[in-house]
Amino acid sequence: MSDERVKELLEELKDGVINYDEDRVIAAAKAVVEEGLDATNAVFHGLIPGMEEVGRLYEEQEYFVPELLMCADALYAGLDIMKPHMEKKDIGIAGVVVMGVVQGDVHDIGKNIVKMMFDVAGFQVFDLGRDVPLDKFVEEQLRTDSDLVCLSAMMTTTMVGMKDIIRKIKEKNPKCKIMIGGAPVSEEIAENFGADGYAKDASNALKDAINMLSTLRKLQEESA
Prior knowledge:
By secondary structure, the protein is α/β, with parallel strands linked by helices. It has two domains: 3-85, Methionine synthase domain (Methyltransferase, Methionine Synthase (B12-binding Domains), Chain A, domain 1), CATH 1.10.1240.10; 96-223, Cobalamin-binding domain (Rossmann fold, 3-Layer(aba) Sandwich). It has helices at 3-18, 22-35, 39-59, 65-82, 109-120, 134-144, 156-159, 161-172, 187-193, 202-223; strands at residues 96-101, 124-127, 148-152, 177-181, 197-199. The chain has a five-stranded parallel sheet with strand order 2-1-3-4-5, with helices on both faces. Helix 1 (3-18) runs antiparallel to helix 2 (22-35), helix 1 runs antiparallel to helix 4 and helix 2 packs parallel to helix 4. The chain is globular. The mean pLDDT is 88.
């Protein structure tokens, strides 16, 4: 496949998501599979940049919840077609992750994108879904002995619950790393809440998770 054709399909996926054109995304996703383009590349460089732009438009109030949901439908339509063709990447580090959207919040698009990236990178993911009771995160971390807990919130009113979750998990298991993300979250808030990391988007979430777990492994090796 020529570079021009690859670029064309990636743009179709991205623009289709931004313009909530589900049919356009489906056609481009089918072409990716039929023409042999790397499906992982198509998702990470087509669909996800499209959804990140949608997130920006939402934050700047150019898009609202109805547009956000239609964009998500277009994204998921493309994912459904390409996900079976995505190859898991060996990143040289395995980790167990618990993730979910905190209680009172049902905005799970960002969390679902992060989950997909973690899946592809070879992490074992326990997805608690959305509107998750605060204590459920603590229980699931202890049950799975996860290396990492990822908390997501899209509203300032639900974001405050993250602080209690972080405190309770750290009391039970201080070694567990905790990352938070979502529209109202900032690096300063992550620091104030006691989180180990903050992800402004899905790509950074994966990079930070790998760095955190790599550090954790080194500390475990040194103490062994």
